Amino acid sequence: MADKLAIMLLTLDPERPHLCGTPFFQAAAAASMDVDVEIYFSSRAVRLLVKGVADGIYPSESQHKTVYEFMKDAAKLGVKFYACGGGLPELGVKEEDLIPECTGMAGAAAYIQRVMDDEWKVLSY
User: Fold this and answer.
1) What is the DSSP string of 53-85?
2) In 3-state terms, what secondary structure has residue 111?
3) Domains of the chain, with CATH numbers?
4) What is the pLDDT of residues 82-94, one digit of tens each?
5) What are 26-42's pLDDT values in tens digits?
6) The pTM is what?
7) CA neighbours within 13 Å on the CB side: how many for 37?
């Protein structure tokens, strides 16, 4: 069984919050099984890393936990969050605007390296 998982968040958008909880819940589940997990935020998904965005949305009307709380749960288990540096200027975001759980910047080359590495499994949302 592979013990490394890379997740690409490409189609997630804070304006569609019902889609935003699952990747973090699944990342936390994998991390709790001793899997190394990295999440790559691209396109509009990068907005989830901006302070104040994810803590203002809920994945469902019946959910009492914010998307940010799901993100913090995953981070506490060791999940790493990487923002696409190229996407930040497009959204008018600076590195200092990002939540403390953001591990750093990583773009297409870093994610493709994971995709091509046999030790890694990948998911895309």
Assistant:
1) TGGG--SSTT--S-HHHHHHHHHHTT-EEEE-T
2) helix
3) 4-124 (3.40.1260.10)
4) 999 887 888 888 8
5) 999 999 999 999 999 99
6) 0.94
7) 27
